[in-house]
């Protein structure tokens, strides 16, 4: 069983993430706004339905939202990397991307 390193109570933060989806067939756009209390970050992504495919809006929502979340993750990693460098931390390799950026 693991034990806390100290007797100090954990510090809890709440970040608010809002995800907005907009569909204009065949395009779906996702916009994410992340409010950390100290900063506000935003990312966007799109999905486009092939005109020969059946119209299933949930698929466009999932693709656009997933891509926007990945873009937000990249922004957070870049921000953390910049913050670490600003504090004089040793250089480190950024994690390899899951795949090439879409629309960044």
From TrEMBL:
Q: Which InterPro entries match?
A: Rv2632c-like, Rv2632c-like_sf
Q: Which Gene3D superfamilies match?
A: Rv1738
Organism from which the protein derives:
Streptomyces pluripotens
| Name used for this protein in its record | DUF1876 domain-containing protein
| Annotated spans, Disordered | 84-104
């Amino acid at each position: 069983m693991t034990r806390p390193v100290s007797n100090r109570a954990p510090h809890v933060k709440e970040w608010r993430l809002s995800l907005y989806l907009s569909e204009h067939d065949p395009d779906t756009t996702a916009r994410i706004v992340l409010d950390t209390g100290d900063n506000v970050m935003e990312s966007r992504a799109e999905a486009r339905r092939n005109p020969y495919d059946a119209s299933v809006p949930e698929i466009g929502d999932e693709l656009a939202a997933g891509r926007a979340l990945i873009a937000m993750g990249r922004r957070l990693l870049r921000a953390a990397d910049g913050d670490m460098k600003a504090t004089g931390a040793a250089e480190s390799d950024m994690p390899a991307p899951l795949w090439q950026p879409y629309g960044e």
